[in-house]
Amino acid sequence: MKRAIYFLISVIFLANANIFISKTQPGIDFETGIVFSGYNNVRIPGDEGTLFSMNGDLKANEKVFYRLRFNYTIGERHDISFLYAPLTVKSSGSKGTDILFEGVVFPAGTSIDGEYKFNSYRLTYRYDFIKKDAFELGMGFTAKIRDAKIALASGPVESVKTNVGFVPILNFRMLWNFKENLGVLVYGDALAAPQGRAEDILVALRYRLSDKLSLKGGYRILEGGADNDEVYNFTLFNYLLVGFSFNL
Question: Which domains are seen in the chain, by residue range?
Answer without folding.
Answer: 2-247 (2.40.128.90)
